[in-house]
């Protein structure tokens, strides 16, 4: 009886997952395919077309295009802000869940982090631009890196808190009895165990930083603009370069996709490791 009911449920789950995958994948494939079209082919809506590399060549190698510079800028901002988020969030999570803070302090701090994460980034962009200009950091990587770190830190703190709480206290106590200092305890005991959390948090933080648009638009100019800002500039006053925009969007997927593939492997590997091991 149970076998008879399990089969339809399993089939229904597969149908729902396939439908969800189609909803997610089809728009991405359409954008990638649009990058290989000509402007006329895309605007006429022709279903069959001859793939061309004109848009990719224009985006990457044209003298009027700064896309490679924007790509470099996004990598600098994304990697640096992700590293800062991981360091600060890991130390903060360990402090909140291992040091002798009153319970109400921990709850208020986490609640404030959650509320701050719910504030739209565009609401903070004006204040950050004013502060950056006041201290001479306007149109610099430093201002954007700090802004992205602040934006993504609440999420990183919550995620790292989940993994830090899973570290057995017995391991930390045994290391402390053996004379391990706090930095050594974190480096030799805690970090290897929470490596899956670091990988997952790092990937998510990088993706959010890579895709952030509103703050980057306000804090950067031509020399420091990131990929989302560069893609938006293809929508000009009298013309929208759809195929070049699609080609840029297709190229922008690559770093996040590579990180997700690498991160997924380490996450699965780390989650299967026991704490005693």
TrEMBL record:
Question: Per UniProt, what is the membrane topology?
Answer: Multi-pass membrane protein
Species source reads: Chelatococcus asaccharovorans
The identity of this protein, by name, is Multiple sugar transport system permease protein
Which Pfam families does the annotation name?
A: BPD_transp_1
Location of the ABC transmembrane type-1 domain: 71-263
Cellular location of this protein?
Answer: Cell membrane
Q: Which InterPro entries match?
A: BP-dep_ABC_trans_perm (IPR050901), MetI-like (IPR000515), MetI-like_sf (IPR035906)
Signal peptide positions on this chain: none
One biological process term from GO is: transmembrane transport
Give the UniProt entry's GO cellular component terms: plasma membrane
**Member of which family?**
Belongs to the binding-protein-dependent transport system permease family.
């Amino acid at each position: 009886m149970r076998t008879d009911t399990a089969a339809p449920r399993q089939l229904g789950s597969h149908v729902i997952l396939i439908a969800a995958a189609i909803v997610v994948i089809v728009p991405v494939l359409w954008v990638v395919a649009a990058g290989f079209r000509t402007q006329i082919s895309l605007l006429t809506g022709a279903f069959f077309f001859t793939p061309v590399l004109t848009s990719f060549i224009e985006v990457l190698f044209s003298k009027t295009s700064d896309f490679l510079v924007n790509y470099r800028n996004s990598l600098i901002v994304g990697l640096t802000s992700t590293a800062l988020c991981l360091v600060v969030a890991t130390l903060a999570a360990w402090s909140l869940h291992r040091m002798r803070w009153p319970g109400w302090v921990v709850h208020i701090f986490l609640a404030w982090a959650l509320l701050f994460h719910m504030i739209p980034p565009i609401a903070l962009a004006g204040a950050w631009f004013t502060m950056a200009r006041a201290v001479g950091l306007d149109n610099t990587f430093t201002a954007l890196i700090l802004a992205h770190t602040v934006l993504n830190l609440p999420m990183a703190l919550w995620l790292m808190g989940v993994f830090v709480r899973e570290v057995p206290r017995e391991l930390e106590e045994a290391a402390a009895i053996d004379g391990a200092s706090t930095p050594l305890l974190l480096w030799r005991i805690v970090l290897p165990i929470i490596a899956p959390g670091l990988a997952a948090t790092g990937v998510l933080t990088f993706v959010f930083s890579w895709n952030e648009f509103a703050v980057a638009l306000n804090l950067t100019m031509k020399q420091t603009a990131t990929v989302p800002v560069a893609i938006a500039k293809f929508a000009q006053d009298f013309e929208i370069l759809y195929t070049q925009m699609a080609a840029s969007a297709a190229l922008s997927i690559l770093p996040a996709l590579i990180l997700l593939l690498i991160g997924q492997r380490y996450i699965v590997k780390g989650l299967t490791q026991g704490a005693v091991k």
